[in-house]
Each structure stands twice: as structure tokens, then as C-alpha cells.
């Protein structure tokens, strides 16, 4: 084809053939898009691990608590021992003890027999009439005397020791297949778990005898248990003990391992960390809410059983506060982790936040450099090893949290705030090449 001449059909056909040949070469050199099967598998595996771990969070907290309380005798005693000095629990024990004594001791009959015996000695009719009028006041006085003795025994420092010792014996009975022999204050019977009042009545009888009150010998032996749980709970206690002893230690570790696996397998680890934080929040929060609802259910059960709701509430709180505290801490950690992970994500808002923080830090470093504040080689080393420095700050914060156990929400806020301040100081102390003297000269003094 000559210059300036229109291309012939043969020329166009030749060009098309050449282009097609080049396209075939390019198709052979360019690999086909990789299938998304592997990426989808990783995303699904990560999601499954995190979801299962989130479900295990409340179970892990409960099983760990049960293992400590049911398996560790000292922890069980330490949890229940303070109840002996709680006014509401003391009031319930006094009321239940007096009910048990009244059920087997007729104070009116005792005083009536005593006065009738005196009247039969040949006293004048006027004296007999006077003594008859004293029957009810004498019965009330005797009952009041016993009531004061019961109250004195339950409120004494010695009772706290009796409660602690008997609770230890009750724990040993609770962790065996056989029921308690009645020698403990906290016992397990065929009807459930309860408080044995016999030991208290024996102490009252001894207290009255020491005061020289002769009628103390008329108080019979009491074999009554204030049931704190229904008979069905007996099977649950046995099952719970076996489960707690077996998985109470391992289940929290399994939950943490699943969270870690979900993050490591994920295609986008920042997103997986957000999911982990949400899982901790949902798991811990649901347990905390469940415990709060359980307090209302316990109050209803106490009212139906004729027990003092306030005292039963105190006992429930004493037993469940440890779980509720742990659940709350786990939920707060979940919120902090989710927020930090989100800030490192790829979303437009997270990117804008990081760009804004970087701009503020860059401006602050330039402002400091313009005023002669230069970290020199140390700042350059911080910049070159900034990832390692951030990792060290995170590790130190985690070690601090572990050292503070048991944690409070305030301590978590303190550690998180301190770690963020340390990170910010490390960022400001960096010496970056793009923010050298030239950049500093552009900052107005």
C-alpha cells in the first residue's frame, strides 16, 4: 500500500489477522483470574470460628466459675463465708430458726403447765386468778427470750466461724455422691440444697443454758433444712460438678483459640478482629443480662417458697457477682477491641479517621521540628521500627491487664487510655524523612 492511498481490503484483512494473532499471544501471557474458592473458604472458616467462639463465651465464663466454686473448696468457702455477717441473711436465719422452734415447741403450753402446777399448791383463789392472767405474757416473754438468744447467736462473731466451718463441711458433702449427714450448715438433701438449722438451735440451747435459763432444756432437737433450690437441682448439681471439673479449665482456652484461628484464617484480619470484639460483647453482655434476669426469677422463687426475698437475693448476688463481673469485663474488652480494629479497617470512615490522625501527627511533628525539637537518630529508629513499637505497646498493655486481675471497667479504661497516650507519644517522637527540615520551614513560627 502506497503513502496516501486508501487501504485495500487485502490490507485491512492482513491487519485484522495481525491483531488477532497479537491478542492470542496476550491471552496466553495473561493468566486467567484466579477462582475465589480459596478466598471464600477462608472467609467462611473465619466466620464459623468466630461465631462458635462467641457462643462459647458465656459457657466458658460459667464453666470457669463453676470449676472454681464447685471444685476449689477454699474459693467456695470464701464466697459464702461473708453471708454470715449480712443482716438480711442473718434475719432470714433467725426467722427460719424461730419458725422451726415454734413448730416443735408450744411456749403457751409450757408456761400454762408451769403456772397450773404452781396454782395446784393450794394458793388462794385471787392468787390463782392472777397467775392465770400471766399465762400469755409469760409465754410471750419466754418466746421473746428465745428469739433474743437466737438473734444473739446468729449476730455473734462466733457464728461467722461456725458458718465458715460448716460451709466447708457442706462443700465436701456437696462434692460427694452421698448426701450430708446433717452435721453441716449448708447441706444437700433429696429435696435440694439448703441451710441446716439444727446447729443453730443447738447453739441457742447452749447459750440459754449458760445464762441459767432452765427452760432451755425444753427446746427439742431440730432437724430442719431451709431449701434454697428445688429437688431437680440436685441432678443439675451433680451434672454441673462433673462438667465443670472436666471442661471448666479448657473451655475458655478453646474459646480464645477459636477467636485466634478466626483472625489468622481471615482474608481481612481487621474485619475478623471487629467480629471478635462483637463476639466478646455479645457473649459477655448476654450472660450479664441473663444473670440480672435470674435475680428477678430468684426473688419470685423466694416469695413462692415463703423465704425472705431480700436474703435470697443477697445469697444469689454473692454467688453470681463473680460471673457478672467477668461477663461485664469481657463485654467491655469486646467494645474496645472492636473499636480499635474498626479504626484499622478499610472502610471510608476508618480511612478518613486515620488520615485525619496522621495529618494531626504530621503537623505536630513539623511544628516541633520548626522549633528545634529534633529526636535525631532515636526518632528515625522509632520510624523504621514503628510496627514493632506498636506491638510492644500492645503486649505491655495486655501484661498490665493480666497483672490487674480481677479487672474493673475503670482499670480497662485506664490501661487503654495509657496505651493510646504511649502510642501517640511514640508517633510524635518519630523522625520521618518526608517531614525533615524542608517541611519544618513551611510551618509558620
From TrEMBL:
List membrane-spanning regions. Answer: 43-66, 241-266, 278-303, 323-342, 387-403, 409-426
Coiled-coil residue spans: none
Q: Which UniProt keywords apply?
A: Membrane, Transmembrane, Transmembrane helix
On the tree of life, the source organism's domain of life is Bacteria
Could you identify this protein by its name? Permease
